[in-house]
């Protein structure tokens, strides 16, 4: 009787194994499709973001503001920083494109997991780079305001007014930075969570 039961178990395992492999293959294909779609959205959003910042810079001409405030000597330095910034952002967008092409190509589960981790790292570096640049740009704007604005120069002679002004500027800077960080967290953070969830599901299959 025990021998017959053992034979039935072996026969059952033989029948269920192809079904299980087929099921895992379907799940992996579905995760692959979801991951490809998520990385495509990261690429699209990053391009839209650059387009938005470019449009804002064209609408608000900083060169005219600098000339008006007699700080035109700073224009070449700001142009260099702008060109370098665009070059770095373009490199990130190209990296997102390469990640998208790699993930879109049907590969092994292990390779897909590696591509997901690589994409998440790239997004983290991109977000931190943008937040740092936003913070530095805001600080540079405040410093120029102190240097060039006659009203700010008058305030600098009044210690109490100077302290209040600095506090207001710091609060404004923190609020601006917080809004930017929240934007990146809501947009890119949500997409990164999806990728990490896909990674964990693939990890279960790969075990």
Blueprint (SSEs and pairs):
Elements: H1 2-59, H2 62-68, H3 75-104, H4 109-148, H5 150-155, H6 159-206
What count of helical segments does DSSP give?
6
Sheet having the most strands: none
Distance between termini? 35 Å
Strand content: under 5%
User: Could you report the average pLDDT, rounded to the nearest whole number?
Assistant: 78
What kind of assembly state do the chains in view correspond to? single chain
| Topology pattern, helix = H, strand = E | HHHHHH
> Which term fits the overall shape?
elongated
Q: Which structural class should the secondary elements be placed in? A: mainly alpha
**Estimated helix fraction:** over 70%
Poorly predicted ranges (pLDDT <50, ≥5 residues)? none
CA radius of gyration is: 27 Å
Number of strands: 0
Give a verbal description of the structure.
It is a single chain. The protein contains six helices and no strands. The longest helix has 58 residues. The protein is elongated. The protein starts with a helix and ends with a helix. It is an all-alpha fold.
In a few lines, what is going on in this structure?
The protein is mainly alpha-helical. Helices cover 91% and strands 0% of the residues. The longest helix has 58 residues.
């Amino acid at each position: 009787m025990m021998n017959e039961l053992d034979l039935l178990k072996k026969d059952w395992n033989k029948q269920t194994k192809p079904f299980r492999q087929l099921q895992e293959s379907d799940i992996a294909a579905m995760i692959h499709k979801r991951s490809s779609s998520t990385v495509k959205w990261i690429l699209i959003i990053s391009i839209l973001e650059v387009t938005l910042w470019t449009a804002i810079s064209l609408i608000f001409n900083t060169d005219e503001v600098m000339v008006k405030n007699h700080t035109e000597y700073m224009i070449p330095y700001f142009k260099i920083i702008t060109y370098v910034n665009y070059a770095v952002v373009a490199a990130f967008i190209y990296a997102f494109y390469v990640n998208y092409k790699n993930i879109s190509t049907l590969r092994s589960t292990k390779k897909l997991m590696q591509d997901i981790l690589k994409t998440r790292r790239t997004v983290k570096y991109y977000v931190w780079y943008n937040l740092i640049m936003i913070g530095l740009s805001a600080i540079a704007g405040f410093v120029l305001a102190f240097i060039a604005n006659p009203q700010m120069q008058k305030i600098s002679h009044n210690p109490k007014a100077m302290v209040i002004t600095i506090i207001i500027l710091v609060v404004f800077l923190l609020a601006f930075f917080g809004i930017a960080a929240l934007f990146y967290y809501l947009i890119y953070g949500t997409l990164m969570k999806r990728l990490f969830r896909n990674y964990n599901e693939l990890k279960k299959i790969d075990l």
